[in-house]
Amino acid sequence: MPSRKFADGEVVMGRWPGSVLYYEVQVTSYDNVAHLYTVKYKDGTELALKESDIRSQSSFKHRKSQSSSSSPSRRSSSRSRSRSRSPGRPARGRRRSASQSREHKDDKKKTIQETSLALPVLVLFKLSENNTRRYNGEPESTEKNDTSCIILEQKLKPDLEVKHVLEQYSLRSRKDDKKKEEIYSEKKTFVAVKPIEKVPTKTKELEFGGRIGTFTLIFLLPATVFYLLLMCKQDDPSLLNFPPLPALESLWEGRVFGVFLLWFFLQAVFYLLPIGKVVEGLPLSNGRKLPYRINGIYAFILTAAAVGILLYFQFELHYLYDHFMQFAVSAAAFSLALSIYVYVRSLKAPEEELAPGGNSGYFIYDFFTGHELNPRIGSFDLKYFCELRPGLIGWVIINLAMLLAEMKIHNLSVPSLSMILVNSFQLLYVVDALWNEEAILTTMDITHDGFGFMLAFGDLVWVPFVYSLQAFYLVGHPTTITWPIAAAITVLNCVGYYIFRSANSQKNNFRRNPADPQLANLKFIPTATGKGLLVTGWWGFVRHPNYLGDIIMALAWSLPCGFNHILPYFYVIYFICLLVHREARDEHHCKQKYGLAWERYCQRVPYRIFPYIY
Ligand code: NDP
User: Fold this and answer.
1) What are the φ/ψ torsions at residue 487 (nearest 5 degrees)?
2) Which residues of the chain are in CATH 2.30.30.140 domains?
3) Where do Low complexity bias regions lie (predicted)?
4) Pocket residue to mutate for ligand 1, from 387, 388, 434, 444, most atoms within 8 A of Cβ
5) Which residue has a Cα nearest atom 25 of ligand 1?
6) If 0-12 CB within 10 Å is exposed, 13-18 middle and 19+ buried, where does residue 445 land?
7) Ligand 1 centroid to 291 CA: how many Å?
8) Is 447 in the pocket of ligand 1 (CB under 6 A)?
9) Which residue, 145, 156, 225, 472, is most buried by CB atoms nearer than 10 A?
10) Atom of ligand 1 nearest to the CA of 546
């Protein structure tokens, strides 16, 4: 018996998950383990389907020939239209011949059968059509297949979401209200009959240069951090002036590691405090939503209070500056141990809890990108915790330590203007991230990437020790800037921040509540997943306006360090590379998610990050 019925490249009819509708799809691959076919719909959407949800085209042609119309929706709607238009006109059936009448009867019988299954589909399809014309003003972007699918998917979700979809489509007329009721009543039957099944499949497209790339990065990332820190300590940090390697024993001190552990566990305690609201993340592949405690800003306030107390009792915070390299080594060792721990435990994790981006089956790749999506110890979410707490808050504390070290080393009564600017700009960035903590739940890091070496090292080492490079540089390389220059840099930072914040808020608010009256002036392209793609506002300016704002800010953070060396500009150069690469990754995911709708979006908004440049 053959293990698979349909071959790669074969054009077949695929059922849209949860519905009774079949669309023409092409088989692109088959997963022997999960017994799932990956199929591509005409609009570019890719889904994994079971064999039972796929039919050959010939079986459909046969059914079609028996029916007078290929679409039950068209038949039912045309009937109702003719009745309402002219009640006095004889019914069509009465004008027909006997054979036509028999055919019509058979047809009607079949229509009733089909409609009884398809009714919610039809009703919902029509509702969405109404809406997109009115709300979106983009009739050309509404495809019948797309919209029916949107609504079908939504219809299978819990009550609240169905309500949310209906609200999103701003339905007003009484006729539509009646349809709403039908939808609610039909929904329950559907849930019982056919729940959506989304089974995670293997990661087929490897990112970051695949196995060789990720293997290299595991060594390259720590080497880069240590190179940058060694360079920064030199009097002449020119690129060609390679720093001498320190003695190995000078890199490690038990006490420093102890302080690091204390810091990490103090942040863990703050995270566990039952203060702040608990919100749900986006639905996982099994439909479950994980709860997250939003208390990052409280953790920051408590940390600030603790540091204030330490300073009051004359604790010398520049201890951090004196042992900076040892702290970086401690953090790197800890992040490596954490990555090993999360990888080992991921081997026992159920398939559905693995990361869509880190389930390739290759050890190095999965270890680097993260095998398990949301490793948790009880309610303690390791990835979410590391994303914003020890590293991000640690970055601000390191900056403060650098400021105090500068004052002490150079005998200053007040910090330099450059140091004040760097500290203030980066403090604003961190506080903003913590204030808007909830927004992180929709980012790629949380929804797509697993927790592995990349994020553990990134969060605990790269962010605090590389992002604080400008402040570290300024301690050893004092730079004087004038007030007008400081003012100009401040304006630049404010412009970057404004773009960054308003773009992120616009998208987050739209994702949370597309029917928000404050967003009523924005247009969007509907997609087959039920989510829209904004085509006006910031997201109609470039495809990643938030990255543009972030890069402008990065430049403003480097400028206070003057132009003597390129080293303090490492951050902005690296950040452009990171965001260009991240944009390409996101673009790829969006194309898979949204297919044709994404292509339309790209046509409408041709530039990715920099208007008229890229
Ligand atoms: P984004 O916030 O840019 O989100 C990308 C997602 O937005 C897409 O996957 C898509 O997801 C949605 N989207 C894309 N286009 C549209 C549109 N037109 N309308 C509506 N939704 C759209 O992702 P990131 O996680 O990369 O970035 C978040 C923030 O973090 C950014 O400001 C970035 O600059 C910053 N960042 C900072 C870093 C640092 O080290 N300082 C590192 C990385 C990021 P969907 O449709 O599924 O909702």
Assistant:
1) -65, -45
2) 10-58
3) 66-75
4) 444
5) 443
6) buried
7) 21
8) no
9) 472
10) 32
Cα separation, 464 vs 331, in Å, equals 10
Picking from 374, 377, 327, 378, the residue whose alpha carbon sits closest to that of residue 354 is: 374
Residue nearest to atom 37 of ligand 1 (CA): 550
If 0-12 CB within 10 Å is exposed, 13-18 middle and 19+ buried, where does residue 499 land? buried
Question: Is the C-beta atom of 443 inside 6 A of ligand 1?
Answer: yes
Own/partner pairs for 236-240, CB < 8 Å, 24+ apart?
237/473, 237/477, 237/565, 237/567, 238/565, 239/566, 239/567
Q: Let me know: does 442 contact 508? Beta carbons within 8 Å.
A: yes
pLDDT tens across 182-193, in order?
Answer: 332 233 222 333
CA 422 to chain centre: 29
Distance between the two ends of the chain, CA-based, in angstroms?
53
- The encoded tokens of residue 581 equal 């690469």
27 and 39 Cβ atoms separated by less than 8 Å: yes
H or E element in which residue 534 lies: strand 532-534
Task: Report, at the CATH architecture level, how domain 10-58 is classified.
Answer: Roll (2.30)
Which residue do the tokens 């029917």 mark? 515
Grade residue 107 by pLDDT with cuts at 50, 70 and 90: very low
pLDDT surpassing 50 at residue 336:
yes
Q: Is the pLDDT of residue 176 over 50?
A: no
Residue 608 Cβ contacting ligand 1 at under 6 Å? no
Q: What is the pTM of this model?
A: 0.70
Are the CB atoms for 516 and 531 separated by under 8 Å? Answer: no
